[in-house]
Amino acid sequence: GVAFTGAGLGVFVSGSEATVEATVIRDTLPGGAQGRGRGMNVQLDVDTGAPATLLLRDSLIETSYEIGVYIGGSEAALEATVVRDTLPDGLGGRGWAVLAEGPSPGPFALHIRGALIETSREIGLFVYGSDAMVDGTIVRDTLPNESGSGWGVHVKPNPDADASLLLRGSLIETSREIGVLTFGAQVTVETTVVRDTEPGADGRFGDGIVVMSDLELLASAHVTTTRIEQSARAG
To answer: pLDDT tens digits for 162-175?
Structure first.
């Protein structure tokens, strides 16, 4: 394996193909005005618009600032990988473990299999205007931000694209306010456990799965053979 340590970005992939195996990316120091220290940043080429492709396998992304793994308009597969201890950025904002931001170049921009996502701040996995498939993965101990939100999984469209998630055979454990939230997006949950969802700092919420729509963004969820337990307010 190879160990990467740097300021601002641990590994940067733009409009290219990359395979990262048996690798540790740790203690990526925050840099720039926003105080970002992303472990991995995978994005399309800003000049040509060509997407990037990443295979991240058997690796550890640890102690990043703002985002552990960022996928922007590209495709990535995370297999048997740990993303942990994602800290807030230099402005005290988000500390998300994994962010997939679309539009997606293919049917699934992000495929996570057999991964562990833990001790991030605010959101463990955020699928934003993108499409993701998550198999056999644990998202746990999502710590709250300053307002008390520590959501395990969040799925939401962005102004450019819809969002969807297929979540199966996984465990979402010890979130604050919400375990799995779909806002205006399509989510399928199969053979999954969502448990120990605690209330926020103000004592509100504590819901295992939340399906939320507004007048323009319609959400749907198909939940089968799933166990939702020990929610502070609602399953």
So the answer is: 999 999 999 999 99
